[in-house]
Design goal:
Layout lengths: L2 E5 L5 E5 L3 H6 L8 E4 L6 E2 H4 L42 E5 L5 E6 L4 E5 L3 E4 L3 E7 L9 H13 L5 E7 L6 E6 L4 E7 L6 E4 L4 E5 L3 E6 L3 H6 L5 E6 L3 E7 L2 E14 L3 E4 L3 E7 L3 H6 L5 E14 L3 H10 L14 H10 L2
Antiparallel strand pairs: 1-2, 1-3, 3-4, 5-6, 6-11, 7-10, 7-14, 8-11, 9-10, 12-17, 13-16, 13-19, 14-17, 15-16, 18-21, 19-21, 20-21
């Protein structure tokens, strides 16, 4: 089934399956003058012209022309952002081990590279060489100013300005590099090519990805989401056409929205694909907001695409551990003996 791409008034591009076009037109997501494109079309065209059968009277677009600014999409479905053309992502195989404290083992052919956050490595086999570099290496022809800008954006997210590149420099055979989850939860393996070439996620969720993946940030343009959302104004954005691995706390739930709206606890949102609109709304009336226990605001997700949710954000888990730590004034649970408390007093704990 064909994949269609469309652009909004701000020239931001999204993609949906052909089977979802009729629903998108009925809901007003795609209007007659909305620029659309699919494989086989030489250029962008108004939806009323390219999809005239979906509009009353055949559409026609009212003579509107698609904007001249949107950059063309390449075969992998993502947009070239300037500063040197992005390289095609390396094709890596992988296997995920474990249940609650997982590791992902990435298999590399000679010459292949995987990039990872500093400190994420668990082990590497022979012939795997690693080096800390500024940036993700997705745009090898990028100038020094472009690299400084990229690492400056990473610094805004609280991440290290360096990323570690793991490369198989041997002459034969496959070699493996493994990366560990930073806290209990699940590692999500996402093929960026299958979801429109990019994904937006919480700023500390990226673990590793195939070389060619662009790791950058996305500023949230909505004030409500910026001030009251669990992730603030800054989110992380991964672009490319290969495998990327992100981490979430607890159990991960994947939901696909087809024009519906989903309200989520602000801390439980992990990632969402292109076509999803993210905003913040009040959690019901004043009584529900202050006494309902669900917080003052909820994240509202709507549109066409995929959403990934986590059951236990790391910040929430850390708060609960600290609140029950005896040294911090919490209660002891499960020790079942007065002698246990006396023992801690004698030990000075």
């Amino acid at each position: 089934m064909a994949t269609w791409h469309y652009a909004d008034a701000n020239k931001q591009q999204f993609q949906i399956d052909e089977s979802q076009l009729s629903s998108a037109v009925q809901q007003g997501v795609i209007a007659p003058n909305t620029p659309v494109w699919t494989s086989g079309m030489p250029n962008w065209a108004p939806a009323g012209q390219a999809l005239g059968h979906l509009f009353p009277g055949g559409g026609g677009g009212g003579g509107s022309q698609p904007p001249s600014g949107p950059p063309p999409m390449n075969g992998s479905g993502f947009v070239s952002t300037g500063g040197g053309a992005p390289i095609q992502s390396h094709e890596v195989d992988y296997e995920i081990f474990g249940d609650d404290m997982q590791i992902v083992e990435v298999e590399l052919d000679p010459g292949e590279t995987v990039i990872a956050e500093a400190g994420a490595m668990n082990y590497v086999e022979q012939d795997i060489h690693f080096e800390a570099k500024m940036g993700d290496g997705s745009q090898p022809n990028e100038g020094m100013m472009g690299k400084l800008l990229a690492v400056g954006k990473r610094a805004l997210t609280g991440e290290s300005i360096f990323m570690t590149h793991f490369t198989h420099r041997g002459s034969g055979g496959k070699r493996r590099a493994a990366f560990a989850a930073p806290y209990p939860g699940k590692i999500m393996a996402i093929n960026l090519k299958e979801i429109g070439g990019e994904i937006t996620c919480q700023k500390d969720s990226f673990l590793c990805a195939a070389m060619g993946t662009q790791v950058t940030i996305a500023f949230n343009k909505r004030l409500g989401a910026g001030f009251f959302g669990g992730e603030g104004f800054i989110l992380q954005r991964l672009k490319g056409d290969g495998m990327a691995f992100i981490h979430a706390g607890g159990t991960v739930v994947e939901r696909e929205l087809k024009g519906e709206t989903l309200r989520v606890d602000t801390g439980c949102l992990v990632a969402f694909s292109p076509g999803i609109s993210y905003d913040i709304q009040r959690a019901g009336n004043l009584k529900s907001m202050f006494f309902g226990g669900e917080g003052l605001f909820l994240a509202t997700l709507s549109g066409h695409g995929k959403v990934w949710l986590q059951s236990l954000p790391f910040s929430r888990m850390a708060d609960r551990i600290l609140s029950h730590a005896p040294s911090a004034g919490g209660r002891s649970q499960g020790e079942g003996s007065v002698l246990g408390g006396i023992g801690r007093m004698l030990d000075g704990d």
